[in-house]
Amino acid sequence: MAITDLTYFIDVVDKITNVASMSEDGTPIPPVSAADADITIGKSRLVNRLCESVPEIAVEDLLLGSQYWIAKGGISGLPPTDPVLHGEKLVEPAEMVPATKPFGVGLFTSTGVLGTQGMWRIYLDLNRDSTLHPRPWHVWSVVPRPGVVVREITSATEWVELVESYPVSTGELTYPDWSRIAEDVDAVHMTARAVAATQGLYFESRRGIVAPTYWGLESTLWLRWSFSDQSLVEVVD
Fold it and tell me: Distance between CA atoms of 182 and 106, rounded to whole angstroms?
C-alpha cells in the first residue's frame, strides 16, 4: 500500500501545473494563507497515510543516510551529459533569475525509502519512455558530511517563513533568495507534505505575494558541496 501511495502522490502532484487559473469561471484564484493551506492538506487521507507509513519523507527531518542523486542521459542534439558525480557538478547560487525551485544551481537528491531510490527515481520509472528523461540513468548514493545544516520545510507555513526570511522580489512576486539562504545553510529539504501544501499556489506573506512553486516530490536542494562520499549504485539502460 505504501509504494502505491507514493506512486499515486507523484502522479497527482505532477498534474498540478497552474492552480491560479483553475477556478471554474476562469478567473485567477487569489493568494491563500499558508495556515489555510496546511489545514486543507491536513485533511488529505493520502498525505496522512504517507505521514504514517513513510514519515522520513513526508514530515520528518532529512534521512541523511539514504540520499540519492540521478544523472539522466543526454538529450538528442545537445552536448553529452557527464554522469559522474563530483564537486564541480554543483554550481553554488550567485546572481540568478529568481525562482522558487532553481535549476542550474545546487544539486537535488531524493530520500530512498521502502527499498526504492526515492521519489525522483519512482517518477523516472513512471515516465521512462519520455524524451525528457533519456536513459541511461546513473544512480548515485551520496553521504552528507557530519554536521551539515539542513533547513526543513514540512508545511506551507514553513515555506512562507523561509521566503519571508530571505526575500527577493521581481515585479509583483516574492521568491526565496537562494544565494542568501546558502550563506546560512547547506541544504533545504522539502518534504512530501510541504510539496502537497504548496504546489502551484500563490501565498500571502509579510513580504508580498509569494510566487507559486512546483517542487513536485520530496527532495533536498544542496546549495554547496556537502558530501563526504558518493558511489555509483546502478545504471539503468
Answer: 10
